[in-house]
Structures are given as C-alpha cells and as structure tokens.
Amino acid sequence: MSDKLHMVETEKFNKSKLKTEKHEKNPLPSNETIEQEKQAGES
C-alpha cells in the first residue's frame, strides 16, 4: 500500500520547479589571472 502511494507522489512530482543553477564555491582562476599574478610576483 505504501509503495503505491510513493509511486503516485513520484508521478505528480514536477521537475521543472527544481532549482538547477550551480555556483562554484571556489572557482579556478583563469589563465589570464595566473599570468598577471606571475608577472606581479616577478616584479
């Protein structure tokens, strides 16, 4: 009985309401940024 209830709820579930945006917590620096930091460190 319980399994049938779960199936009904699963079928009613609306995936379009889910938030799918992902934000990197600690993104890697771009190659340009790395080069700028290298040059600043050499000075």
TrEMBL record:
InterPro entries: Beta-thymosin (IPR001152), Beta-thymosin_sf (IPR038386). It comes from the Eukaryota. GO terms for biological process: actin filament organization; regulation of cell migration. Gene3D superfamilies: Single helix bin. Residues 1-26 have a biased composition (Basic and acidic residues). Residues 1-43 are annotated as: Disordered. GO terms for molecular function: actin monomer binding. It is found in: Cytoplasm, Cytoskeleton. Keywords: Acetylation, Actin-binding, Cytoplasm, Cytoskeleton, Isopeptide bond, Phosphoprotein, Ubl conjugation. One of its GO terms (cellular component) is cytoskeleton. Transmembrane segments: none annotated. Belongs to the thymosin beta family. Plays an important role in the organization of the cytoskeleton. Binds to and sequesters actin monomers (G actin) and therefore inhibits actin polymerization. This is Thymosin beta-4.
